[in-house]
Design brief:
tRNA processing, Alpha-Beta Plaits, five-stranded mixed β-sheet, alpha/beta, Oxidized Rhodanese, domain 1, 3 domains, single chain, about 325 residues, Rhodanese-like_dom
Length: about 325
C-alpha cells in the first residue's frame, strides 16, 4: 500500500448554491490537507483530489453525505506522493467544457460496466469511439478505436460527420473517467445514432477493475503524474518521441510557457532540449526551468486559494454580530 491516494470522480446533480457550496467545499479540503482540482457548476461536481488514505476517505464520506452526490462513484489510485501542488475549487458553467446542447440527466448513452465492456471490445459489430483530446489518445487508446483530431470536447460537432456512416452500429464511447462520455453519448443520440453506450468510470476504472486489456499505451491524466499505466494484461507502447522518433510514452508539457504543447518526449531528449519541443522553444525567453518531469503548475488566474476560508470567516463574523445585536 502506498502512502497517498488520487481519487477521480464526477456527479451530474443540480447545485443551486454554487458559490456557497464552493466555499464550504474548499474549507473542508483545507482542513483535511487535500490538494487537487474541483469544479462546481449548476449541473454538478467534478474533481481529482489527492491526499493521505485517511483524508481521502473523509473526503469521499463528505461527498456521499450530501444527498445530491450520494451516488458518486470514485476511482481510487495509490501513489507515492500527493499528485498535486495546489488546491483549486472553482465555480464554472459546466463541470466539463463542452457547449453541447444536451443534459445527461435527461438523456445519455447506456452505461457499460468495465466487465461488460471487456466482453464487448472484441465484438466485430462494436465501434469504439475515443472522446478525448488529440494529445491524450496520441499516447494511449483502445486497440482499433476511432479517434478525432480535436483539442477539446467543444469540437465534437465538427467531427461527428466522420462517423456518420456508423449510425446503425453499436457505438461505445470512452474517455479518462467517464465524464465526457455523459455528454458526448447524449450528443450522438441527438445526431441520430441508434445504439450508443459509454464505458462507465472510463479508462481508469477499466484498468483498476479489469486489468486494462487492449488499452495500448498509457492514459493521460490531469495531475503531476501526466500519464499512468492502465494495461496490466497486454501492454504496449504506441507513441514516439516528438524529437527523435524512438518509442516513448513519456509525456511532457513544452517548457516554453507560450507553447505548452503536450507531446511524448524520451528522457534523453527531454534533458537535451531542456524540456522544450523545438529549438525555437528551447531558445524562447519564456522557457520554464525543466526538472525532468515536464509538469508545470498552472497559473492561478486571479484565483485565491484561501477564498473559501476567508468567506467562511466573514460569515462567522456576521453571525456573531447578528447574535450580539439580538442580545441587546
Amino acid at each position: 500500500m502506498k502512502p497517498f491516494r488520487v481519487i477521480l470522480y464526477y456527479c451530474y446533480s443540480p447545485v443551486s448554491d454554487t458559490e456557497t457550496y464552493r466555499d464550504q467545499h474548499h474549507l473542508f479540503c483545507v482542513e483535511h490537507n487535500l490538494l487537487g482540482r474541483i469544479i462546481i457548476a449548476p449541473e454538478g461536481i467534478n474533481g481529482t483530489v489527492s491526499g493521505t488514505p485517511e483524508d481521502c476517505e473523509a473526503y469521499m464520506n463528505y461527498i456521499h453525505s450530501d444527498e445530491r452526490f450520494k451516488k458518486t462513484q470514485f476511482k481510487i489510485e495509490e501513489h507515492d506522493k500527493i499528485a498535486f501542488q495546489k488546491l483549486h475549487v472553482r465555480v464554472k458553467d459546466e463541470i466539463v467544457n463542452s457547449d453541447l446542447p444536451v443534459d445527461p440527466l435527461v438523456k445519455t448513452g447506456k452505461h457499460l460496466e468495465p466487465s461488460e465492456f471487456r466482453k464487448l471490445i472484441n465484438d466485430p459489430d462494436v465501434v469504439l469511439v475515443d472522446m478525448r483530446s488529440d494529445y491524450e489518445h496520441e499516447v494511449g487508446k483502445f486497440k482499433g478505436a476511432i479517434t478525432f483530431d480535436m483539442h477539446n470536447l467543444r469540437e465534437l460537432p465538427d467531427h461527428v460527420q466522420e462517423i456518420a456512416h456508423l449510425k446503425d452500429k453499436k457505438i461505445v464511447t470512452y474517455c479518462t473517467g467517464g465524464i465526457k462520455c455523459e455528454k458526448a453519448s447524449a450528443y450522438l443520440l441527438d445526431q441520430g445514432f441508434k445504439d450508443v453506450y459509454q464505458l462507465h468510470g472510463g479508462i481508469i476504472r477499466y484498468g483498476l477493475e479489469e486489468g486494462g486489456e487492449n488499452f495500448d499505451g498509457k492514459c493521460y491524466v490531469f495531475d503531476n503524474r501526466i500519464t499512468v499505466d492502465v494495461n496490466h494484461v497486454n501492454p504496449t507502447v504506441i507513441s514516439k518521441c516528438y524529437i527523435c522518433g524512438t518509442p516513448s510514452d513519456r509525456m511532457i508539457n513544452c517548457a516554453n510557457a507560450e507553447c505548452n504543447t503536450h507531446v511524448p518526449v524520451c528522457e534523453n531528449c527531454g534533458w537535451e532540449m531542456e524540456g522544450a519541443c523545438s529549438d525555437e522553444c528551447k531558445a524562447h525567453p519564456g522557457k520554464r526551468v525543466y526538472d525532468g518531469t515536464g509538469y508545470y503548475v498552472s497559473q492561478s488566474n486571479h484565483y485565491h486559494p484561501l477564498q473559501g476560508l476567508k468567506s467562511q470567516q466573514k460569515n462567522i463574523k456576521k453571525m456573531k454580530l447578528a447574535m450580539r445585536e439580538q442580545a441587546g
